[in-house]
Amino acid sequence: MSSIYYGRHIINIFEVGIRHSLRAKTPLNVRLCILRTMESPLQTATAGELSVSEISQTPRHQQLIVTIFGLYARETGALMPVSSLVRLLGELGVEAAGVRSSVSRLKRRGILESTKAGGIASYAIVPGRVDMFTEGDTRIFSPSHPSAEDKWLLVVFSIPETMRVKRHILRSELTRMGFGSVSSGVWIAPERTWIRAKQQLDRLGLELYIDYFRAEHLSPLELSRNIGTWWDLVALDTMYADFIAKYESLKIKWDSRQGNLSAETLRDAFVDYVPMITEWRRLPYKDPGISAELLPADWKGMLAEELFGDLHRLLGTPAHDYVLGVMSQK
Predict the structure, then answer these.
(1) Three-class secondary structure of residue 222 per DSSP
(2) Secondary-structure breakdown of the chain: helix, strand, coil percentages, each rounded to the nearest 5
(3) Cβ atoms within 10 A of the Cβ of 1, count?
(4) How many helices (H) and strands (E) does the chain have?
C-alpha cells in the first residue's frame, strides 16, 4: 500500500479503487487514488445527539420504546403485542395515549410497523431495520479499547455551499458517530470505525462527497495535545460523571437484592433497567473510543463503563424474565 504526507500525518490509502481528484486542498497538491466501495447501506443507528444536561433528564417515550424493542423484540418476525407494550410503558410512567402517539412517530420514521398474529394487534420492527439494533450491540455492550499504536481514520469531504443542508447532515452524523473535527473538511476517528462509518454515510447518500484515509500521527506530544481540541472531552467526561452520580446508588440497591426472584423483584428490575440503558446507550456513540494513554488521568469513562456493566449484569436477566411474563399473558 502506498503512503503520502497529509500535514503531519502519514496517510495510507485503503485500497486502489476508482481514480479521481481529492476535492479538499492538500499540502502537496497531489492527486490520489481512493477506494470507493459500493456496500449496501446500513440502517440508521439508534443513538442521537446528546447534550451535557440530557443525561440527567428522563428519557423520552420514543427512546424508551426503541430500547424495549431493541432488547426484547428484535428477532426477525418477533412481535410485541400492543397490550404488552402499553403495560410495559405504563410501568415506566407512560400513559397509553403517549405510547400510541410515540409508536405512530416511530412508524412514520420507518422503524416500527403494525401487524397482527392470531388476531392480536401487535407492533414489529420493520424488516431490514434489525441491523440498526444489531450494529449498536457491540458499541453498547462490548466496547473496544484501542492502543496508542492504532491507526486513525480520516474522513475528508468537500460539499458546495449550495448544498449546505447535506454538509450539516454530514457533520451532525460524524459527530454522532464519535468523530472529532481536525478542520472544517477533515474529521478523525479510530481506524476501526471505517466500515460502520462508510455504511452509514452511504445510506445517507453522501458517498460522492467523501474520501477515507488510514493515517498515523507523527508527533505523539502534539497528538495528545490536539485530542482535546478535536473532541470536547470535558463535556463527555461530565456526561460520564453525571451517569455515575445518578446510578451508583442503584448498584448498591441491587447488590443487596441478588438472589431474590420474586415477581416484585422482576418488575422492579425492569423499571430500573430500561431507563438506565436508554440513557447509557447514547454515550458510547458520543465517545470516540480513544486509547487510555491519550485521555486525561481522571477520565470518568472507564468507571462509568464498569458501573453500566455491573448494572447490566444485575438487572438484565430479571428484567428480561419480567418482559417475557408480560408478553405471555393473553
Answers:
(1) helix
(2) 50, 15, 35
(3) 8
(4) 11, 9
Listed in sequence order, the residues at least 6 apart from 269 whose beta carbon sits closer than 8 Å to its beta carbon are: 254, 314, 315, 318, 319, 322
Per-residue pLDDT of 153-195, as tens digits, reads 999 999 988 898 999 999 999 998 889 999 989 999 999 888 8
* CA atoms of 277 and 59, how far apart (whole Å): 10
Q: Is 178 helix (H, G, I), strand (E, B) or coil?
A: coil
Tens-place pLDDT, residues 40-86 = 222 233 333 333 333 444 568 999 999 999 999 886 568 899 999 99
Where along the chain do the CATH 1.10.10.10 domains lie?
A: 1-231
CA distance 225 to 58: 35
Paired with 4 in beta bridges are 11
Residue identified by cell 500535514 is 7
Q: Which of 284, 282, 283, 276 is nearest to 319 (CA)?
A: 276
- The predicted model scores a pTM of 0.75
Indicate whether 219 pLDDT > 70: yes
Q: Does domain 1-231 have CATH number 3.30.450.40?
A: no
The length of the chain, given as a count of residues: 330
Please check whether residue 306 is in contact with residue 143, taking contact to mean a CB–CB distance below 8 angstroms: no
Closest CA to 7 of 34, 32, 28: 28
Q: Can you tell me the distance from the alpha carbon of 239 to that of 110, in angstroms, rounded to the nearest whole number?
A: 30
H/E segment holding residue 243: helix 233-255
